[in-house]
Amino acid sequence: MQYSLLIYQSPENFLRRDDPAQRTAFRESWIPYLNELRATDVLVNSIGLQQPDSAVTLRLRNGQRLVEDGPYADTKEQLACIITIDVPDIADAVAWMWRCPAIRTGVVELRPHPPGRRVAGQEGVEVTACCGGGMTAGGKVRRSAELMQ
Question: What is the number of helices (H) and of strands (E) in the chain?
């Protein structure tokens, strides 16, 4: 069964992840974890997300388009990464959660995928970098004013 591990980080951890002086230390715990998931054929897919201030939230209310800069939820921890795993049961998924580096400084939420729905994988891809990425168009983050057009 497939599960998604939703990794939530504090603003301080986002800064550590993106600061060139601290990036290497931050990633050192992630790369072995992701490679172990891959080596055991558990990793289906993973993606690190850009900082929450790069998010855009859209709503349609009474026919009116509402576009806001920033994440949907205004909380201390923000969604930083999504890891999809394929394991026999929830006990195995929870065991991988406890090994996740984010458990020490952030929050890890586990969500099962609907029965019969599967995410395509990244078979055989060795992880050499992690974290970052995100919503881009033509190499730049799109802001809310651009999305209104």
Answer: 5, 6
